[in-house]
Amino acid sequence: MNKRIITAAITGSIHTPSMSPHLPITPDQIADEAVRAYEAGAAVAHIHARNPETGQPSADVNLYREIAAKIKSRCNIILCITTGGGLGMTVEQRVAAIPLLKPELASFNFGSLNFALFHALETYKDFQFDWEREYLAMTEDFILPNTFKTMNEFSRIFQENGTRPELEVYDVGMLNNVAFMLERGHLKKPVYLQFVMGILGGILASPQNLLFMFNTAKDAIGDFTWSVCAAGRHQFNMCTLSLVMGGNARVGLEDNLYLERGVKATSNAEQVQKIVRIARELGLEPATPDEARQMLGLKGLDKVAY
Question: pTM of the entire structure?
């Protein structure tokens, strides 16, 4: 098949408002960005919520409901709701939107890791909001917890609500977790993996490491559908390699604030347009949302709760 699923990670919980004036903050801004990404060729929008006054990552399920409803009223893009949430949120806060919204797709971090952002303080000195510096600094002594107990509970909640998990794999050991959970029946095949590369605390973003992850997954799991996202300057190189290898690609301001060296992206749509252009140069086409639904075996937009 020459179709590839393009995901746009709209705002995330990594970058802070002072890092880019183009980072969407309010529900309207996030919804607008998702619709623009759809118009540019994205089949999936990965959704985090933020406090509309300060831009701080938020676990408020009412914000998620508002964002999802506004996007659905304007286009049929697939929404992938986060369960990673914002750094420091409780496990209960992170998963709360799934039974409420019953989305087609949601992210599912598949192991604990040191999720470090504190080194950004070497680059960014001045901040609009008091929370930004503290948020980044605290990650020097922070672990994003995803224990087997948590993963078991998340799996149950996903299954009860008909939500397909997008398994976020930050390092090769997490593939062992996937294989174990499949063996014990907590996950069902086919699985959808996303190799997350270049986060400090996770695997380095390099062609060799992507090949290693892919081959390890084949050995441990068998067949699977997969995608790649990579932090910062590695975004387009690694996403292009994924497309060449038969995988899918995630771009967006959650992962990278730039369009090219020294040029900040003014929207998620700009990054989507770029990866679509690259795909077409390779003889590939972006899947529509409905094509992506078929490729991923999703339940359909008529079965969500927003």
Answer: 0.97
